[in-house]
Amino acid sequence: MAGGDTFGRAIGAFVGANRLGNAVVELTVDSGKKENHEATIVPEQPIVITVYLAYAEDAQRQHYLTLPVNEGSSLYDALEQAGWLVKFPELASWCQEVIDNTTPTAKRWHVGVYAKKQPLSYILQPLDRIEVYRSLSADPMSQRKSKSRG
Fold first, then answer.
1. 46 and 68 in contact (C-beta within 8 Å)?
2. How many CB atoms lie within 10 A of CB 80?
3. Which of 5-14, 56-65, 76-85, 112-121 has the lowest mean pLDDT?
4. Distance from chain centroid for Cα 112
5. How far apart are the first and last CA of the chain?
6. Cβ atoms of residues 78 and 124 within 8 Å
7. Is the pLDDT of residue 27 over 60?
8. What are phi and psi of 146, to 5 degrees?
9. How far apart are CA 6 and CA 127, in angstroms?
């Protein structure tokens, strides 16, 4: 890339890397002088992905949220970042009980992704739908049977 300055001199720039991986900018002016300047390296910004959260406390109170999280965030991180561990104390206490479990237990598990129960350490993927499940008061199959008998 070459240009000129207000004095009509030709100016060029070369961007490379030194042996330490730092960016080096070499400026040249038509007089043949070369100046080396170390460029400031800005750390890479983390990649942000979008996930969705859903929780139906009951038939009347349902919560939905679109949440940007850093790539590599866990399911627990997303619940915490969304503020749901403060907003729903019963969810927070349940999370503390099972935070070290790596395999979801069948009837006791309260969170999942796309209707599949996942551990709190599950690493989120872009556009995952995190679902918080509530305990059922009765087995749906037995409820249907009792309705059909009545």
1. no
2. 16
3. 5-14
4. 16
5. 84
6. yes
7. no
8. -70, -35
9. 52
